[in-house]
Amino acid sequence: MTTVLPQPRFALFGASGTLGQALAPLLAPHPFRVVGRSRSQLAAAFNAYPSAQLAVWDPASPDTAMAALEGVDTIIYLVGVHYTEFRLHPVLFEQVLEAAIRAGVARCVLVATVYPFGIAQTALVREDHPRNPHTFKGRMRKQQEDLLLAADTAGRIRGAILRLPDFYGPKVSRSYLASLFQAAASGKTAQLIGPLDQPHEYVYIPDAARTLVDLIREERAFGRAWHLAGAGRITQAELIKLTESITGRPLRKLVVGKRSLQVMGWFNPLLREVAEMHYLQTQPLFLDDTALSGLVGPLQKTPYADGVRASIAAA
């Protein structure tokens, strides 16, 4: 007799990253699907969750996206690309979005960034702030958002966008703070992007995961974008002091600015791309998440001291 597995309601597309892994314990024990480009990475990331159904997506074969979404009600899109390949963001998202529509998926949540806004025009940026990206990465991210908003307006799929500031957390390697925690744990030199005295905000990955779960279960969330702000404003200098107080030893650090990034970018394409977004270090953008808290209730905001301690321990 063949065992018929229950259909999962949710699918994490681009699941093997840190946010996908943070969502797993919140979605279990109910069946959920994890989709990625490497079965081995998916298996390693989700082997602790028997309810996670693995599906492989090959962007070179668009039909694999549709097969991966069969029977799914809601997709959470988490696909990342290398910083030097941002042109792929709208290309890959359009492929998955069209596959989701053809597969009969009812809802799609896109996890997004602050890049489409460009330079902030207000002290706090609400969801209705003009999107005027002046960078290539901002334009690519805006194209992603526009694809989903247009599909929602046309009635093809319900769409929602959750925009996040820079993020950090345990085992988060793609973060401007990752080197800080790795250096604190190993005694090596932290490579940081200055200036260190500018206020910034960071969202803790487990907090973002909890908010995403609350969002996808709220029908009123769809048809628009939402913001999740960090746990308050903090400078890198303050984070360094906090790190040193936790480890009990001074941190060795190498700080580079925009000009240094541009020079090193002649030889390192990644640093050239980082230099493009340096404006956020000197002209920081702060999100207003009043609307989101009005929708789902009080938002979980882990204090930086707790988040930094957990990040160092994981490093």
CATH domain fold name of the largest domain: Rossmann fold
Give the strand tally: 13
Q: Can you count the helices?
A: 13
Under CATH, the homologous superfamily of the largest domain reads NAD(P)-binding Rossmann-like Domain
Overall CATH architecture of the largest domain: 3-Layer(aba) Sandwich
Beta-sheet strand percentage?
15-25%
Structural class by sheet pairing and helices: alpha/beta
Strands of the biggest beta sheet: in what spatial order?
3-2-1-4-5-6-11
Shape: globular
Order of helices and strands: EHEHEHEHEHEEHEEEHEEHEHHHHH
Helix percent reads: 40-55%
Cα radius of gyration in angstroms? 20 Å
Termini separation:
47 Å
> Largest beta sheet, briefly?
7 strands, parallel
Q: Give the tally of structural domains.
A: 2
Q: Regions with pLDDT < 50 over 5+ consecutive residues?
A: 1-5
Q: Assign the CATH class of the largest domain.
A: Alpha Beta
Mean pLDDT score, rounded?
Answer: 94
Describe the structure.
It is globular and about 55 Å long. It folds into two domains: 10-167 and 204-229 and 284-299, 3-Layer(aba) Sandwich (Rossmann fold), CATH 3.40.50.720; 168-199 and 233-282, no CATH class. The strands form four sheets. Strands 3-2-1-4-5-6-11 form a seven-stranded parallel beta sheet, sandwiched between helices. Strands 7-10 form a two-stranded parallel sheet. A two-stranded parallel ribbon has the order 8-13. The chain is built from 13 helices and 13 strands. It has 315 residues and is an alpha/beta fold. The model is unreliable at 1-5 (pLDDT under 50).
